[in-house]
Write a sequence for this structure.
């Protein structure tokens, strides 16, 4: 599950570079300290060395960067789209076929990195430029007993929505990493 969480964060908020000489790096950018701490914990499981770059002027997001060609190679071999632009992202097949606890761990991290929680509408919305990625997420949710809808947005991206009873099921069976999203879901 911790590896699935790391992959979820990378698909949502990360960037993987693998060079021809097998050097490379993985980075995750986020403004929530709880997410950065969780990414760091996942990298600690791999015994990877990483740095945390403070936010640049004009932004609130910080970055965790792991300079590991071996990790970058593993991720790109697991799912080539991980090294691609956001519009081409996919959920790795190994995660799609994994056990329910692994699926829930991936979804918890991915949705946390990309979602907006509306307490008044009892809805979680996740935006992406990759319809295929959201279709993968929708399939994973369905395999866990939850429904979600996907609709196009005006800007060429797509939005996945989890609402109503499925919102409640998501909160109860998967949940959130950050306190602010957990509180917003109450």
């Amino acid at each position: 599950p911790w590896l699935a969480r790391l992959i979820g964060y990378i698909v949502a908020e990360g960037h993987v570079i693998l060079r021809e000489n097998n050097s490379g790096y993985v980075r995750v950018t986020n403004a929530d300290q709880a997410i950065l701490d969780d990414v760091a914990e996942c990298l600690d499981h791999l015994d990877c060395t990483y740095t945390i770059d403070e936010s640049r002027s004009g932004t609130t997001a910080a970055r965790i960067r792991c300079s590991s060609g071996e990790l970058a190679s593993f991720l790109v071999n697991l799912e080539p789209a991980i090294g691609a632009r956001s519009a081409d992202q996919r959920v790795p097949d190994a995660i799609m076929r994994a056990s329910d606890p692994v699926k829930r761990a991936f979804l918890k991290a991915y949705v946390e990195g990309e979602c907006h929680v509306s307490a008044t509408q009892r809805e979680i919305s996740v935006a992406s430029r990759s319809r295929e990625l959201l279709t993968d997420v929708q399939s994973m949710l369905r395999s866990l007993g939850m429904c979600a809808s996907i609709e196009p947005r005006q800007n060429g991206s797509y939005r996945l929505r989890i609402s109503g009873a499925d919102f409640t099921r998501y909160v109860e069976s998967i949940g959130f990493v950050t306190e602010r999203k957990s509180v917003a879901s109450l």
Summary: The beta strands are 14-18, 24-30, 51-53, 62-66, 115-118, 123-128, 149-152, 158-163. The first helix runs from residue 2 to 13. The first strand starts at residue 14 and ends at 18.
